[in-house]
Amino acid sequence: MSIYQRVYDAPTRHPPARRGDVERATVRPLPADLLTAPEIVDALRRREFGPVFAAAHRHGISWIGLEEVTGLKSERISDGAKSSYSNPKIETVERIVDGLQIPGWMVGLAARHWEITPPTNSGRELSAVNRRDLLTAGLVVPLAGITAARDETEAALAYAGVQDVTGVEAAAERYSAGYGGRAPEEMLGLLAGELTAAAPLLKLRHSRAVGKDLARAMAQLGGMAAIVLHDMGRHELADQWFVTAVKTARRSTDRQTVAWVQARRAMVPLNYGAPRTAAKLAEEALREAGSADTAAAVLAASVAARAYALSGQRDQAVEALQAADRVAGRLPRGESADTWVGYCEQKHHVHRSQALTSLGDTAAARESQQAGIELASRSGMTRTLLLLDGAMCVGRDGDPTGACEAAVEAYGQAPGRFRGGLVQQRALELYGSVPEDARRSAAGRTLAEVLAAA
């Protein structure tokens, strides 16, 4: 006897002689509202039938009735409803879905025979009400699914990939100009907004060219966010964002973008106490950049020079600095822009000054410091970093107390929004480099107080 006969034949036509016959006359397919409940849909997707049995029982189907339509022992069904009954054999899955009229697609099966050809009721036509109930029970979930699929298709068709990606590229170009008078916290908020809005685009299908453009722009925005975090002193978060930016950059297959992010990432350990790690990352960036005359290539060489100098690898530092000087002198106009992704003359003097200061070549370092200061804005962070390098040179030339005095003066000229993070880290390095008697001097105590206040 089919499930349809159990559902639609009048009970009086089949006098119950046994308990099973009673159940056979009263079991109904699961109602549509139960089949569309999120927890049931999710359970069926995982082929976890415990929640389904429990819901069917609450709906009024006894354990004996479920035994009749599924072929499972009633005790097994009731136990499964209380805990979990999942991943049964395929034959058991088929018996359950056929017995309870669960559409095959909900458990990853093809349409069941009763879905494709609705049977008649023992040779009699179904009433209009029964036909409606049958269609509702069997088709409401597939209709909901196909409606959702259409909504997704419409959303995909409405998405103008080139236009939206162009917006992301425009944001990357706009914010690459740097802080522009903004505090780091404000800049970070703007970049976070752009990244949050653009990130979902990475999930969508694009043409190969558009996908590359999107990945490049997203890598740049992510790298800029990491730069701001680095400047704020949040070096662990900065490194995490650089890792994400490198992954994104690799999607673009643009080796110069990958090299730029890697070189920028190397500056995190460089400025926060791990120069050997910085050297390894800078070397990776150099390999990515290759022999091209690009901003990424000269940045990687400059960072490598600084890392080698701080690590005591003098020969490697000099060689890397010479390479950076050569490439910086022949950069094309687009690569030498004064942006976060470009490499302008001022930026080169900042890196060169620090490398030369670490090498002890204070005369050459002062030349770069002076050239960089002339190009730097008084309201930015770059000027302060160059002045602190100058203070470090004073100490290396044998005047540690004068170094503290110069550091206090440099710190006093720094805009308030840049007195923490990287600037503070550089001043702390200077304070740590002077001997104890210099720290006990008036200038040393003042520097300690200024740093503590920051």
Q: List unreliable stretches of 5+ residues.
A: 1-27, 117-145
| SSE class | mainly alpha
Percent helix, as a range, is over 70%
Oligomer: single chain
- Name the shape in a single word: elongated
Head-to-tail CA distance between termini: 84 Å
Topology:
Layout: H1 3-8, H2 19-26, H3 32-35, H4 38-45, H5 50-58, H6 63-70, H7 74-82, H8 90-99, H9 113-116, H10 128-158, H11 161-175, H12 184-198, H13 208-231, H14 235-252, H15 255-271, H16 275-289, H17 295-310, H18 314-328, H19 345-359, H20 362-375, H21 382-396, H22 400-413, H23 421-433, H24 436-440, H25 442-453
Helix pairs in contact: 2-6, 4-5, 5-7, 6-7, 6-8, 11-13, 12-13, 13-14, 13-15, 14-15, 15-16, 15-17, 16-17, 17-18, 17-19, 18-19, 19-20, 19-21, 20-21, 21-22, 21-23, 22-23, 22-25, 23-25
Q: Can you describe what's shown?
A:
By secondary structure, the chain is an all-alpha fold. Among the domains are: 3-154, no CATH class; 376-454. Helices cover 70% and strands 0% of the residues. The chain contains 25 helices and no strands. It starts with a helix and ends with a helix. Residues 1-23 are annotated as: Disordered. This is Transcriptional regulator.
